[in-house]
Amino acid sequence: MDFRTRFLAYYRYLKTTDRKWYRHSIAVLLIISGLLGFLPVLGFWMLPLGLSLLAVDFPIVRRFVRRTYVALGRTIVKIRQRLRR
CA 13, CA 70: separation in Å to the nearest integer? Predict the structure, then answer.
């Protein structure tokens, strides 16, 4: 198994586990690490990953994440349309 497959399997496990305290603690750690993304080892990719883990249990975060993903998708579509011209 390569790294990506193991990572996705663990992420899927975190989203479906019954231990909420475990999922919440990992999500908070990812969000804090994502805010420190300017440091060499940490990255900004951790922020949306932590938010998507919190979105499993909190409807407010779920709405925020969904709206952000939709807005990002629309922006990507607009940029692609501009580049095709």
Answer: 25
